[in-house]
Design brief:
Number of strands: 3
Order of helices and strands: HHHHHHHHHHEEEHHHHHHH
Length: about 375
């Protein structure tokens, strides 16, 4: 038996038995290949690694050297290095079960310390501002004429200091105003991107969960979304009426353009050409939409929208177990990280507003 065969069996195990995502499988595969390149440099090819080479490579001393290589030579962050160690530890545990190792060497290796990072989130006011500004693209008029829509857009955006010639959306609409089909495709894409952001923000689902949604995932009568998360676990998420309406109007636009199927097993979100959305498309949609809006200084990603919903729910008094079920966390520990944001906010309010904090605790306190 050779290492690559063992690695393949391990990747098959985390895929079939543990049901890890494709992205996680790719990460694990990459870590194993990087480690063997470092630990067994004499092997010209991965397929030439024998069981004996494997046993010699997977030792605390070699793993410590690998950690130093990652930290000092490759300048990886402690967080990334700890990910490598976790992958090696899981792989060693798998090899122990198969009798290739008698102990797990990765567990005896100290892990580099990493700073605890609070989840980044957007301000509620910024999110409200985005939805107010983009509401025109989620209207009930599925196929407006270019000239009428542009005039409506200008009237809606008029305010002191507003310059249409500096508005990239207006410039693009004006450029396509004489091309009805391309103009309709532009409006459809804006509707789609807003629906993507609305869904991410209202439900807190992961990017991969959003991409995997089917038409049948939405039960409009019950206002429920069925989501398949990590480990193929299915959960139901309640939908607010406004999101139900937006998704319904989006589906009407899909049918009006003839770019999608009505079958329940077909992808929910598709582009103007009828192709299913993919992870990079979602990333670009979030970055593009929030990049044009005001009040967004943090990194713009789907996961920050997930953090934002969790933080808002916690601040509104929602209990941790409910948030855990909504987000699809496997343990409460993953959800508890959001409490740090609330504590930090409470401390800031106390320090800036409370009389005792202003006086430094003097006057008998």
């Amino acid at each position: 038996m050779i290492l690559m065969n063992s690695a393949d069996k391990y990747l098959e195990y985390i895929s079939v038995v543990r049901r890890y995502s494709k992205r996680t499988q790719d990460i694990y595969s990459g870590v194993l290949k990087e480690f063997t390149k470092y630990a067994v440099p004499e092997a010209g090819n991965q397929d030439q690694i024998t069981d004996e080479m494997l046993k010699e490579a997977l030792t605390p001393l070699v793993i410590r050297g690998y950690i130093v290589e990652l930290l000092e030579t490759r300048k990886m962050s402690p967080r990334t290095v700890n990910l490598h160690i976790s992958v090696l530890s899981g792989f060693c545990g798998f090899l122990m079960k198969r009798g290739l190792l008698t102990s797990n060497p990765a567990r005896s290796v100290p892990r580099p310390k990493q700073e605890k990072r609070l989840p980044v989130f957007y301000r509620k006011e910024a999110m409200a501002g985005y939805f107010a500004a983009s509401d025109i693209f989620a209207g009930e008029d599925i196929s407006p004429s270019p000239d009428e829509f542009i005039q409506k857009y200008l009237a809606r955006n008029y305010r002191p200091g507003y310059r249409p010639e500096g508005d990239p959306v207006y410039i693009e609409m004006s450029r396509l105003s004489g091309k009805p089909e391309r103009f309709s495709a532009l409006l459809f894409e804006k509707r789609l991107k807003r629906a993507i952001l609305s869904t991410l923000y209202s439900t807190g689902i992961r990017r991969a969960e959003l991409v995997s949604l089917k038409r049948g995932s939405i039960d409009f009568s019950r206002r429920i979304m069925k989501v398949t998360g990590k480990g193929d676990k299915t959960r139901e998420i309640p939908l607010v009426p406004s999101l139900c309406k937006e998704i319904s109007l989006y589906l009407q636009a899909v049918e009006a353009t003839g770019c999608g199927s009505r079958k329940l097993d077909m992808p929910l979100f598709v582009t103007s050409k009828g192709t299913p959305i993919y992870p990079v498309y979602v990333d670009r949609a979030v970055k593009g939409e929030l990049g044009e809006a005001e009040g967004f200084t943090a990194r713009k990603s789907p996961h920050v929208l997930r953090h934002t919903l969790a933080t808002e729910l916690l601040e509104d008094g929602t209990d941790l177990n409910t948030i855990k079920e909504l987000l699809g966390h496997s343990s409460l520990a993953a959800t508890q990280v959001y409490t740090h944001n609330s504590i930090a906010k409470l401390k800031k309010v106390y320090e800036t507003a409370h009389p005792r904090a202003k006086s430094g605790g003097k006057h008998g306190d």
